[in-house]
Structures are given as C-alpha cells and as structure tokens.
Design brief:
The chain is of the alpha/beta class. The chain has helices at 2-19, 126-132, 166-175, 194-206, 223-230, 258-266, 281-289, 313-322, 327-332, 336-341, and strands at 22-33, 38-47, 50-55, 62-67, 72-75, 77-82, 112-118, 140-146, 180-186, 210-213, 236-237, 251-252, 255-256, 269-270, 358-371, 377-391, 394-398. The strands form three sheets. Strands 1, 2, 3, 4, 5, 15, 16 and 17 form an eight-stranded mixed β-sheet that branches. The protein has a seven-stranded parallel β-sheet with strand order 6-7-8-9-10-11-14. Strands 12-13 form a two-stranded antiparallel ribbon. Strand 1 (22-33) and strand 2 (38-47) form a beta hairpin. Helix 5 packs parallel to helix 6 (258-266).
C-alpha cells in the first residue's frame, strides 16, 4: 500500500509541476551552456527565480514571454576580478575609496550577474566592506580577502610584511564563508617570496584558492618558481596578458614560455584581469595563436579602466573573440570556468534548479576598434552587446525593451 501511495503522490507532484504557470519564458534563443554542452536554439522557462525547464519547444503558459530570436542566451556572466569597495576615504586606492566602483552601475548592462572583489579589504576592514558594498548592491557579490590586513590601500600599506598575517586572514575567511571565496596578494614590489608564501598559507588554512597579482621586483622573481612550486593547483594568476616592467611574462620574444604552459597543465588558473594596465596585444595575440588561452575572463574594473581600453565585460570578451578565441571558449571563460574557480558551482550554468541568472547577447557584425592598455588598436568584425540581463529571474537590464509592452 505504501508503494502505491508514494507512486500516486509522485504522479500528482509531476502533474502539478507540468501544469504550473511559468513566470518567464525565453523562446527561440540560441542557448550556449558550456557546463551542460548545450549549443542549440532552445527555450528556457523560469519559475520561482530558478531555471525550471530547458527544451526545444516549451508550450506551457507563461506570465511573460520574451522572443530571443537572433540572440544568444547564456548563463549570467561572472567577473572574478573587479574592485567594489567603494567609499570616500582619501588616498586609499581600492579600499573604501573613490577609485573602486559600486557594482550595480557597471554589471547588469554588460550581462554580469556575479562579481568578485579582488582584495579591496583585508581582515581589519572586511566588516566595513560588507556593510557598505555587499549590503547595498543587487549584484551577487563575493570577495578575495587581501593578505594585507588593511586591504588594497596602495603605497606602503601593501608592502607591509608585518600586516600580512595568514592566521588572521584565514580566520576572517572562515567567519564569512558565504562571502569570501579566496585570498588576494597584489602589488608587492620586493624580491621576496614571503608575501606569496603567507597568502598561500592563508589559503591552506581556510581551504580556498589564492589570486596573485605579481608586482614588479628587481631582481625578478621567477615565474617558474611561482607557477611550479609556490602556487597550488586551483590558485589563480591574474593579469596573465600583462606586460609590465619588473615581472616575467607569458610571452617572451614572441614565444609562449614553457613555465606558463607547464603551470597551466599543473592546474594554475590564468585569468585575464584586463584593468587599466594589464592587457597587451603583444602578449595576448601570440599566446592565443600558439594555443595558450586564458582559463577565465575578467575586467579588473575600477575608475582607471572603465573609460580606457577595458570598458566593460562584453568589450573584453569581444576583444578576445576577435584575436583568436572561439565564441564558445569566450562564453565558457565568462561563466562556468570562473564559477568553478571560486567554488560556486551552483552558478555559471542553466541547469534546471539553478538560480535564473541569464544574459541575452547579440552577436553584432561591423567594423570595431579594440584597444589595449598600451594604446595599440586591433580592428575586428565581431562585437557582443548585452540586450538583457536577469538575476534570479528578475529583469535587471533591458537595452531595447524586449520585455516591454508596445505603446499604441
């Protein structure tokens, strides 16, 4: 009798689900979902803020229907390197300062639904960061906590070895496990492995990855040592196509270096982190031509990059698309790959039951100029434009009124 009752209940539950009215139905879009290997024209149903069905023809009733004909429908983009500890403190660089940016003004219009602040706060000021930026942003936010206790305040603050405490940094990460996804080291200019070792130690204590923004040093610190000995598989080297003095590079004399290839094979993550000074065509173009491609695409968004060569997430994606990466690679590097890198595997895909974070992109054809941080330009014929962004099933950006009612 129990088996019969259970079967009947399952049948009724299934019937109820199938009969349920969809909150939002996206029809006829070309779905690209790298995690689930979907690359086809399909419909997507959203109910109760989650993906409720993905299929070739969904005929159930919907409260609102969006015709995505001619558009690409992808998971909400994930930018794992931005700077969002915004505030009004003078001379504090990216820690409660004017240089950092509130995410909502820069995310949804580019298809981004999730951002990770890259080291603005350390253990000393993370609670303030949480109360200011996290509490006042609709964009889903996470953070890499800085190994420097006072965060990314610039200058002497980021050179202070005495303020690089692995134990206290790991304790803060464990205190906020839903918000802190990694440890950040940036801008250290000494020829000393101590900051790297302390950041990795904090990562080990907290069980989370480390993101490294290698500063300049004289003599140079060896990337071979960094990638093959100091960092762990799953740790992240950001600014992978940067070309600054005082540091080694992925490409030297036009050739991808063996330590970069071996490091990536070992499991080190190479992240773009474009920024205002960390992306050169002289690095990116030969690397991609030789088969060395980034694992993830990110912006390094702040006031010094948003109006320069970087601009926004879709511009960086378009730039890489025009210098040799495939469309599917670009989408994977902006969705499922970064979700895995920050251990948030519930994001970055369109699986039934996942949060309904979705971006609708147009693949525009024309003549476009793309600029690197050195002022060099590449002309391309492809450009991605975000037409609509949904966060948890709610429309946050609608460039051309796809969801609006026609005025008569």
């Amino acid at each position: 009798m129990k088996i019969v009752i259970t079967s009947a209940l399952l049948f009724l539950a299934s019937f109820s689900t199938n009969a349920q009215t969809i909150d939002l139905l996206i029809k006829n879009g070309h779905v690209i979902d790298p995690k689930n290997n979907i690359d086809a024209v399909m419909d997507i149903a959203i109910t109760d803020h989650k993906i409720s069905e993905v299929g070739s023809k969904i005929s159930r009733a919907a409260k609102k229907t969006i015709d995505a004909t001619g558009l690409y429908v992808v998971p909400g983009l994930i930018d794992i390197h931005g700077h969002h500890y915004f505030g009004t403190t003078q001379d504090a660089y990216l820690s409660d300062s004017y240089t950092a940016l509130p995410p909502d003004g820069f995310t949804f219009r580019s298809g981004v639904t999730t951002v990770v602040d890259a080291g603005g706060a350390g253990w000393r000021n993370f609670p303030d960061f949480k109360n200011k930026a996290f509490a006042n942003s609709k964009t889903r936010m996470f953070a890499f906590i800085n190994i420097v206790g006072s965060g990314m305040r610039g200058g002497a603050y980021e050179q202070n070895l005495a303020d690089m405490d692995p134990k206290l940094t790991a304790m803060a990460a464990k205190q906020y496990p839903d918000l802190i996804v990694g440890i950040k080291l940036a801008h250290y200019i000494g020829s000393d492995w101590t900051p790297t070792e302390r950041a990795v130690k904090a990562g080990e204590l907290a069980g989370i990855p480390v993101m490294i923004d290698f500063g300049s040093a004289e003599p140079l610190l060896s990337w071979e040592t960094l990638l093959l000995q100091k960092l762990r598989p799953g740790d992240i080297l950001t600014h992978c196509f940067g070309q600054t003095k005082g540091r080694m590079h992925v490409v030297e004399n036009g050739k991808v270096q063996s330590y970069a290839i071996e490091g990536q094979k070992r499991g080190i993550i190479f992240d773009v982190g474009h920024g205002g000074g960390s992306f050169m065509f002289e690095q990116a173009i030969p690397a991609i031509k030789q088969g060395f491609k980034p694992n993830s695409i990110s912006t390094d968004l702040h006031t010094g990059s948003m109006n320069a060569g970087m601009k926004d997430m879709t511009n960086v994606m378009s730039k890489l698309l025009n210098i040799g990466m495939t469309f599917n690679e670009v989408i994977a590097c902006s969705t499922w790959n970064p979700a895995q890198e920050i251990n948030k595997k519930e994001l970055g895909h369109l699986t039934v039951g996942a949060p309904a974070d979705v971006a609708l992109l147009s693949f525009d054809k024309g003549t476009y100029g793309f600029v690197d941080v050195g002022g060099f330009k590449v002309i391309g014929n492809n450009k991605l434009t975000c037409q609509m962004t949904l966060l948890n099933g709610e429309i946050m950006w609608d460039l051309n009124g796809l969801a609006a009612i026609q005025y008569k």
